[in-house]
Amino acid sequence: MYNRSMIKNIFFDMDGTLIDCEIDKFIPPYKTALVRKFAYHPNCAGIVRAIIMESVKAMLANDGSHTNREAFIEYVRSCDSLGVTAEELENAMTDFYNEQYLGLKSVVNPKPVMAEAVKVLKDKGYRLVVTTNPLFPLVALLRRLEWGGHKPEYFEFVTSY
Fold it and tell me: What is the pLDDT of residue 81?
């Protein structure tokens, strides 16, 4: 028997549920923004490929014994040919998500009905969680929530890399 008082947490997927953001429309401008970020580096193409393709493969292969951030860092450390340390790349990516990434707002479409539903659920006292595929840092996911018309502070937890 269903008992409403038993439900305390509500979990949401991000893409297609909370926001409209199609991956095949997101990746091309994401890649362009990465190229702009790393254009100064002689191995720009290698770095962008490592970020978009190879590090994602490493995170998807993660057996759960460590975070996807750790899988990302471990992958970058294994790539001597990149010409950048894992720490340098992570710092550059932090800058990227606070600068160039902001230009991707146009590929995220709000779902006003979902923003209203989230507000109503939060007002009713439910604990809200975003359980999206954890391939991006938290800052990137919070930006996408904002672009989708959501208040990130409404969510108690957002899965991230």
Answer: 87
Token code pair at residue 148: 């989708």
Domain ranges of the chain: 1-21+108-161, 23-107
Q: Is the pTM of this model over 0.85?
A: yes
Cα separation, 126 vs 4, in Å, equals 11
**For residue 4, pLDDT beyond 80:** no
- The CATH architecture to which 1-21+108-161 belongs is 3-Layer(aba) Sandwich (3.40)
Work out the average pLDDT over 58-64: 94
Please, which residues bridge with residue 11 across strands? 129
Where is average pLDDT lowest: 2-11, 126-135, 145-154? 2-11
Give residue for tokens 């190229």: 35
CA distances (Å), 56 to each of 73, 81, 111, 112, in order? 11, 18, 27, 30
Q: Which is nearest to 70 in space by CA: 61, 78, 59, 79? A: 59
Q: At what angle do helices 138-147 and 86-98 cross, to 10 degrees?
A: 10
Q: What's the CA gap between 53 and 109, in Å, rounded?
A: 25
